[in-house]
Each structure stands twice: as C-alpha cells, then as structure tokens.
C-alpha cells in the first residue's frame, strides 16, 4: 500500500508540473525573459526554501545544516544545479518551438533516462566506496529503457504531426513551431536537465538524519539545486532584457498584480513535482528499485500529463487518426514503465 501511495503522490506532483505552463498564458504584456525570471523566483527560490525548512527540526536551522554538511557535497549539489539551469532555460524554449506536449516529451524523456543513469555513475567516480553502481540493477535499466521507448514513440507521433500539417496549421497549434530547431533544443534541455537528479544524489545526505522524516530528506538538496539553476536563468534573462530592451516590463505597474499572481501559481505548480518526489520517495523506501527509478517515473508521468494538456490545448488538432494512435501508444508505454520494474 505504501508503494501505491508513493507513486500516487509522485503522479500528483507530475500533474501539477505539467499544468504549470497553463498560468503563464495569463501573463500580460511581458516578454518571455521577464515572466520566465519572475516565475523562477517562486519556482526556484521561494517555494524550494519553504520546502527545505520542513526538513529542519525544532531548535535547528538551514544555515546550521549547510554549514555542517560536507562542503564538497554542498558545492557539487549547487554546481549541478547551475548545469541543470541550462536545461531549465532551454526547456522553456523547447515548448516555444514544439508546443507543451512534444517539447516536454522529448526534453523530459532525455532527462529521465540520463538523470537516472548519470547520478550513480558520477557518484561512483567521486565516492567509489558507496558502491552507487549497485543501484543500477536489471530492473532499473529495464525501467529506463521502457521509459525511453515510450518517449521515442511520442517523438514519432511528433514527427508525423510535423510532416502532415501545413505551415499555417502548425502555427495555429504552436505560434513559433520549428521542428528541427525545437528538437535540437529539447535534446540539449534533456541532457542538462538530467543534472538535477545528479545534484540530488550528491546532496541526498544533507539533512538531519533520523531527526528529518524520510519524506522531507531530499528537500534541502532540492533547494540547493534550484538555487544554482536560478543563477543560470537570472543571468540569461537579464542578458535578454538588455539585448531586447525589455527592462520596461518590470516598470509596467498596470500588469504587476495580474502577472505576479499567475507567475506565483506557475512557480508553485512547477515546484510541486519535486516536493511530490521527496514525499513519494518517503513511501518507497521498501523498494530500492523504485527509489532509484523515482526520478525517471516522475519525468515519465510529466510527459504523460503534458500530452494530456497538449490535447486539451488543441496542439494535436488536425493530426491523422494514425498520429493520435501512435501518441496514445506512447502514453500507454510510459504508464507501464512506472509499474513494470516492480513486477520484474
């Protein structure tokens, strides 16, 4: 029963993340770089900080925790957060050129596979005595392979969509649709986004041990990763503000109330995925396989729900029945990937 509860919590977090870009559509009169930065303040600073504080028992503080943790682990967690920030940055661009459904599918699929594998691999390089590679069991590898297969099938559906629609229909579904450019950006996003799980691996012991409940133990590391990612995104967004002369966005007082609300909502929904991941893993401790695959499962479910939103937002309108059938097959394979490892 605990395993079912854990998977359901992760699924709720995935649904929230996949819904996080819907409020962005309500942002008014701001350029991409302006609203991306403001929602990032909430998604990568405010809510992760609040989450990390849940891991701190009475009489202690986050400052004490980070000061007492191994400096190398703290530094590596932040560094991989900076690298993940590149993935988070290009993640938004992938949806700009491919749409919510296909953009998230390709980026998160790459992230799911590489993030799951890279964590134990790099941890083994720096701390071979931990035997991190032992976690990459046959069941884990099968789970990753099936997830990537589901992503590949959805990618085929996206390719079929791109080939069957006219340029006008593509623009109607996704304003800036550009399949070659979008695929390249989405693959880069997936590669760099996988660094999030690597950061969590380096920071998994940054907590108060037995004083911190299992469901909150990865939240301090999550904050360090998103902190690093915020730095990357802030630098780029400020650069774009200067390049595009969009500093005036922040001075437009008439839209601040509306935009702040929807950026905060988007940030809260986005952070829910990693808050749910931490809580869900607390219920999966009896299954080492699912604990290792939790990040991969989260990404797979993100793809499932993002394609549901893609259908709701009419991004697949005008596609043939064959294309929709391939899309639904890919979604079914991804759902299967969440449970298959436990059956092996």
Keyphrases for this structure?
13 helices, single chain, mainly alpha, 76% helix, 344 residues
Radius of gyration: 20 Å
Order of helices and strands: HHHHHHHHHHHHH
Average pLDDT across residues? 86
Total number of strands: 0
Report, as a whole number of angstroms, the end-to-end distance.
18 Å
Helix content: over 70%
What is the percentage of strand-forming residues? under 5%
Shape: globular
**Poorly predicted residue ranges:** none
Total of helices: 13
The major sheet is characterized as: none
Q: Decide which structural class fits the backbone.
A: mainly alpha
Describe the protein.
The chain has 344 residues and is mainly alpha-helical. 76% of the residues lie in helices and 0% in strands. The protein has 13 helices and no strands. It starts with a helix and ends with a helix. 52% of the residues are buried.
What is the topology?
Elements: H1 2-18, H2 32-53, H3 62-68, H4 71-98, H5 100-126, H6 138-164, H7 167-173, H8 179-193, H9 195-203, H10 219-244, H11 253-282, H12 288-312, H13 321-343
Helix pairs in contact: 1-11, 1-12, 2-10, 2-11, 4-5, 4-8, 4-9, 4-10, 5-6, 5-8, 5-9, 5-12, 6-12, 6-13, 9-10, 11-12, 12-13
